[in-house]
Amino acid sequence: MRVRLIVAALTAVAVAVLSAGACGKRGAGDEISIGEYGSLTGGIATFGISTKNASEMAFDEVNQAGGVLGKKIKLFVEDDQSRPEEAGTVVTKLINQNRVVAMLGHVASSHSLAAAPICQASRIPMISPSSTNPRVTQVGDYIFRVCFIDPFQGAVMAKFAADTLKLKKVAQLVDVRSDYSVGLQTFFRQHFKRLGGEVVAEQSYSQGDSDFRAQLTQIKAVNPEAIYVPGYYTEVGTITRQARELGITVPLLGGDGWDSPKLWEIGGDALNGCYFSNHYSTDDPSPLVQKFVNDYKAKYNQVPDALAALAYDAARIMADAMTRAGSTNGEKLRDAIAATKDFQGVTGSISINEDRNAVKPAVVLKVENGKYLLVETISPEAVKL
Amino acid sequence: MTTFLQQLVNGLSLGSIYALIALGYTMVYGVLRLINFAHGDVYMVGAYAGYYLSRKLKGDEPSLLAALVVMLGAMAACAALGIVIERFAYRPVRRAARLTLLITAIGVSLFLENAAQLVFGPDPKFFPSLAPRADILLGGVRITSEQLAVIGVSFLLMLALRFFILKTRTGKAMRAVSFNLDTAKLMGISTDRIIAVTFALGSSLAAAAGVLIGMQIPKIDPLMGILYGLKAFVAAVLGGIGNIPGAVIGGLLIGASEVMVVGYLSSTYRDAIAFAILILVLLLRPQGILGRVQKEKV
What we know:
The complex is a heterodimer. Chain A is α/β, with parallel strands linked by helices. Chain A has helices spanning 2-22, 45-64, 84-96, 109-122, 150-164, 179-194, 213-221, 233-245, 262-267, 287-300, 306-325, 330-338, and strands spanning 31-38, 72-79, 102-104, 126-128, 143-145, 169-175, 198-205, 226-228, 252-254, 274-278, 343-345, 348-350, 362-368, 371-378.
């Protein structure tokens, strides 16, 4: 009887303490909590690290200039270990435990797709810096992105292959575990066919695989003029290296998933002469870009990749939207983000359209001796048929 | 036709890796009737040992000598690891029920995987290239120097093992212990020592496989042992568990079928084929290709 009384008393105390804690109003206090989820470890770790570095740098600058609405921004970053299943878990933690008012993330579309429904249901505005699969913003009206989408990116590479490289026969090697890769492959194929090209072979692999010789042997047998590999840098580097070992000499083409400082470390010389589409180039002479590149280099000892540039823009747009909304309330913040027009970002002039995407030009970069050289800039008008 | 032959070469080199790992499974089972689930992770440790050794030795010119030193170093390291695992994890429970041994093996496997993630970091690492490139072109079929190294070294190691088992006293003792542990003890064989040697041999072969894979597919990560270990286990079962030539045949078959499935069917079935083979083997011919049916007399 005594034991039962004690247990009941303890339970009552526990419930009281927990509910008192949970009663804290989201957004109260003298700091604005923003959440960010990314892959800081695993096969796409450089994406998460670049994004985290750049958004931290952006918010540091904002805080030093006085913060937003008189308060400092506090960034909570969570790692989903390059696993889409984890993305949902960490976002739930950020929303429920850290009580964030807004979310930044993810780079990889599969992860964004896993987490967006949670943000939408909790009415937390989410800005993805670099997810390019169109389905991400279709989840709901609280989900935005500051980059272009894959129907455009696929068309960009198709146009480059057909018009600039004058190719007629291309093979494809797709990561079937990644929504980004599957989407990009479809869009490339559609546009390339419309421009008169032919996709002569389609092979697949799964993210995490390390042996691609079987697929590459099949591709080599049909003699393509190039291979489109719209995957992530860890596999792409290994694929390129194994392709060269098998005697495949044609260039490999890809998308922004290639952009990583680790790509050259993995692929090495095999990557010389390959091309990929991306969001910005460090060769851009604009003073805004060069200042960003220099500041990032000084702070993190690394040249910022496109993921960093996009994260920088996404973070600054988030802060700017809060200022314009005059509050961190979910609905008002969402409306302010949706109204973003001609924001001068490092990756170009960003305006959010009615699909909650940004319409921007893309660049095509060539890999040469560990450097990415700007070859061509392709605008949305140029790929209209 | 050249494509098919090229795929065959690819399958042979992958299969040699499976064969090397399968040998470890099969030897330990033969001697202890224990499926050493931690064996796949010993292979992973071997790959990392090779990685750190090759980083230390990295000269400007890739050289055959460096590759040899790295492989021998990794083999020695894993032989030691195998002995330690046997001594501290398996020997205390050797007389216990089979299930206890099995669970202990799984425990060691989990321990190695998570320790590796802590110590080496969970991100994949990339083997630097060691041996100089020297590809052969036979008709339309290209055999890379890495594939040559894999097939050649595996073949040599398997021959060396066969020689050891058949022609040396320790090998004879191993065969005796696998026949009947208690009788071997009565005959004056130090069973503890023989079992330790068995583990050391199996683990060093797994380490060689790890280094070879590191040279061929430069990516290594702490969880690489899981899938490779499982498929090598399937290979050992396919060839007849406890049977050494069987492990080799099983490994080559699994490697070849995996490559053929990926090349001619779809890469999504790459892992499924090995386990489909396992189910078929257990249903149709559980003793494996070269295994003998063991009748238990009660």
